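User: Some background: our group keeps a shared notebook of sequences we're curious about, and every so often someone picks one and asks for a predicted structure to add to the entry. Today it's my turn. The entry only has the sequence so far, pasted here. Could you supply the structure so I can complete it?
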Amino acid sequence: MFTRYFTKALFLKEEERGEADLIFSLFTENFGKIEVLGKGIRKINAKLRPQTLPFSLCGVEFVQGKQNKILTDVFLLDSFKNINSSPIRFLLAQKSTKIFLKLLANENPDKKIWQHLNSFFKVLNQKDLSLYSLKLLFYYFLWNLFSLLGFQPELFNCLFCQRKLKPEKLFFLSFEGGVMCFECYLKEKPKEALPISPETVKIIRKILEGQWEKVSKIKIQKSHFQELKEISKDYFSKIINEKPL
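Assistant: Of course. Here's the predicted structure to add to the notebook entry:
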């Protein structure tokens, strides 16, 4: 007889399998990232289908089959309806969870990451979020995820000379994981270095304090958002190349 497993789960992705099945990518409270097979769930009268909304929080039951974990029961805890009813929020959730799934190893439970992802969906579901706040929320989610996975960059001292960073032209080195001062840049001249302003360094520091209420009040100039975008993309690429998936 199969052992039944129970856990809370966030539905992050689904893929069609065969004529009537779906493979769900979940992040669970007790088992970390897992995939479960929803057998026959695409049929019109499938009883579990209404409970498996994208980006919803559910209680799930599954068994371990020969090849797949098989979904046996689901009960909806929070549909996060404002995410599913807003194209912009839905796309942001897709973008964020795509990155999340690439970074996380399978079946590696982590309470802090579970709380971080759950909190992200709760904030994203809030009614009165401006486009600016949504944009900032993405980087808040991303950089704190980096930190929780052990990739928090050095943002206070130069990677090379170890001196405290000054408010001058600075450079971010993704493969080294942090910032270098202008003087060391002139000596080393690494091709991979990206320019970063002291203001953007301060923004990332504030983000990594992990307090959304304070971060949401930051006013960021367009040029600093652009720096944040470029550095985030480069750092993510470095982590993906370095981290075994």
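Suggested note for the entry: Helices lie at 81-84, 87-103, 111-124, 131-148, 182-188, 198-207, 212-215, 222-242. The beta strands are 4-17, 21-28, 32-38, 57-64, 69-78, 170-173, 178-180, 194-196.
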